[in-house]
Amino acid sequence: MSSSLTLFSAPHTRGLAEKMQSLAADLSLGTIRWDSFPDSWPQTFIEEVDAVRGRDVAFLAAFEDPRDIFAQMSVLYALPRYEARSLTVFLPFFSTGTMDRVDKPGEIVTAATLARMLSAIPHCHGAGPARIVICDIHALQERFYFSDNVIPVLISSIPLLKERLLAEPEPDKISIAYPDDGAFKRFHGQFAEYPQIICEKRRDGAKRIVTIKEGDPRGRHAVIVDDLIMTGGTALECKVALLAAGALQTSLYATHPVFPDASWRRFLDKSFRRIWVTDSCPTTAEAVRNARSFEVLSLAPLLTQFLLERR
After folding, report:
1. 132, 155, 178 — which closes off a domain?
2. Which candidate, 53, 64, 219, 280, has a CA 20 to 30 Å from the CA of 227?
3. pLDDT of 12-41, one tens digit each?
4. Is 296 left (phi over 0), alpha (psi -120 to 50) or beta?
5. Per the domain annotation, does 98 fall within a domain?
6. Domain identity same for 239 and 290
7. Average pLDDT, rounded, for the chain
8. Both 287 and 252 in a single domain?
9. Angle (CA) 20 63 181, round 5°
10. Quick check: 77 and 121 in contact, CB under 8 A?
């Protein structure tokens, strides 16, 4: 660890951390042993922990699986106590973000629960509060679930998509389509140079119906943009509506490829030109990396740039 900037990672984000290290000569990788006791509780050990003292430290987290959270939170609480000068926590996917409000009594807002857990990270001796960096959070108001003990920082991966769109054939025929008003509100300001299409969905019993609310897809390559994909039903219905209205072809982008129960497989024969996702959900990203039509856009350049510019 010759540099003063050290990056630790969760087991599933080690590959992403190595990509970040390859982009920055001043970034060294720390090592954590993620073992378990016979009863399955974590037995976690930070290698070369004395080298943490006085350094700017970052941790690349992955909260895809609730079973992984406890061990990672233990490390996040420990790093400031080992006298890290500063702590930046990259949590690309804020996994409880879809449970952000109460619609009926008895519901638990787990987005607020996770924010409270992260807000308990101790201050560092040099720079004070930890920064919690989240990509394309599901609802902007969730930043206010964090206490003043930490600094939530919201960034977007859309620049990665826009760079990729420039390499598409006939980029002047691309329109950006949103599956609902929520996606439009989140992203439309970042696509001012593209024609935009807004879809809307309603339910008729168990059936989901998607129609075009605004915009004209005729003769266009319609790229559906959203923050995350669960099972993908809305995206598939959106594609059907766009093609029926005259779109020449469709592609799909989502920052966070959640895809529970390997539901990404339902997209393999659905004739999207491209399905772009990031590696914010590393296990899913690895599963789809070589799948037909899928392309994984790595967050490594975006996160590395943030770390170097704001250290």
Report:
1. 155
2. 219
3. 999 999 999 999 988 999 999 999 999 999
4. beta
5. yes
6. yes
7. 94
8. yes
9. 95
10. yes
Total tally of structural domains belonging to the chain = 2
Kindly report the backbone phi and psi dihedral angles of residue 115, in degrees, each rounded to the nearest multiple of 5, phi listed first: -65, -40
On whether residue 12 sits in a domain, the answer given is yes
Question: CATH number, domain at 240?
Answer: 3.40.50.2020
Count of CB atoms within 10 A of residue 86's CB? 22
> Which structure tokens are listed for 15?
């590959």
Looking at the fold, whether 58 and 135 belong to one and the same domain comes out as yes
DSSP run (H or E) holding 160: helix 158-165
CA 41 to chain centre: 27
How would DSSP label each residue in 204-229?
ETTEEEEEEEE---TTSEEEEEEEEE
Q: Are residues 82 and 191 in the same domain?
A: no
**Residue 232 in tokens:** 């993908």
Model pTM score: 0.93
Query: Does a structural domain hold residue 51?
Result: yes
The region, left, alpha or beta by phi > 0 then psi within -120 to 50, assigned to residue 67 is alpha
Instruction: Assess whether 134 and 175 both reside in one domain.
Output: no
**Cβ burial 201-217 (10 Å sphere, 16+ → b, else e):** beeeeeeeebebeebeb
Cα separation, 198 vs 127, whole angstroms: 43
pLDDT of 229 strictly over 50 = yes
Residues 6+ apart with CB under 8 A from 66: none
CA dihedral angle for residue 147, residue 153, residue 156, residue 157, rounded to 10 degrees: -110
Longest dimension (CA), the chain: 62
Full residue range of the structural domain in which residue 284 is found: 158-297
